[in-house]
Amino acid sequence: MTMTEVTTVLTGRGLVESPRWHGDRLYFSDWSAGEVVAVDAAGRCEVVARVASLPLCTAWLPDGGLLIVSSADGRLLRREPDGGLALYADLGAPGWNDIVADGRGNTYVNRVAFDPMAGEDTKPGTVHLVTPDGVVREAADDIAFPNGMAVTADGSTLIVADSYRHRLLAFDIDPDGGLSARRVWADLGEGTPDGICTDAENAVWYADVPGRCCVRVAEGGTVLRTVTLDRGAFACALGGPDRRTLYVTAARWQGMTEAEMVAPGSGQVLAVPVEVPGAGLP
């Protein structure tokens, strides 16, 4: 696919991440600004929450509640109807990254066990389960750099991007929300998966920062489609009225240990038409 088939929804942002389609708007996070932003089809933006956290990822609960990961202080927040933020669960130590909720209200939050921005040595990370009653427990370990996550349309499987091992992992979701039957869903070769989403044919789209692309893969790793960009792709989500638009958050990557990880003002939200609609969560 050429860049001419990619349209720009908005530009001039910082490190943009965590796109989520909800209702009739796309929500995304600008980590540089500490903002969760909603944008409509006309490009009108509204800041719906401000949290000084990096990472800054979000998930929608089945009841319509918006959860926000406040990574720096190890808290999971819920946006209240008046726009305020309340504690949903205490996650403990800092370092939390992506989040996804399933159709039963279970929430999965993953944690990177080292500080890449400080240049620390790599340590395997984890995925934790937060049940609707606020109980937090570890559900999976030994993920080199846990990144984007998605729940399949039937609610049976959690897929996790293991960025540093260049693969997608899959887990069965047990009746109590626990994870079992760990397996490699797809070996991506040189692909480096960041944010991910699933579609109605059980394929996964993954965003790739160093590869400057979004890639659609089948279980096993067969590449079905590639969208090439002129900057790093951090995350993607299928949305729009029929979920046939791939929204991509992208920016010019400068490096994990740089004072500004992306070039200021290079953050964009992009849109790409697709044939297979989105399915599953987020």
UniProtKB/TrEMBL annotation:
<dbReference type="InterPro" id="IPR051262">
    <property type="entry name" value="SMP-30/CGR1_Lactonase"/>
</dbReference>
<dbReference type="InterPro" id="IPR011042">
    <property type="entry name" value="6-blade_b-propeller_TolB-like"/>
</dbReference>
<dbReference type="InterPro" id="IPR005511">
    <property type="entry name" value="SMP-30"/>
</dbReference>
<protein>
    <submittedName>
        <fullName>SMP-30/gluconolactonase/LRE family protein</fullName>
    </submittedName>
</protein>
<keyword id="KW-0378">Hydrolase</keyword>
<comment type="similarity">
    <text>Belongs to the SMP-30/CGR1 family.</text>
</comment>
<dbReference type="InterPro" id="IPR013658">
    <property type="entry name" value="SGL"/>
</dbReference>
<dbReference type="Pfam" id="PF08450">
    <property type="entry name" value="SGL"/>
</dbReference>
<feature type="domain" description="SMP-30/Gluconolactonase/LRE-like region">
    <location>
        <begin position="17"/>
        <end position="252"/>
    </location>
</feature>
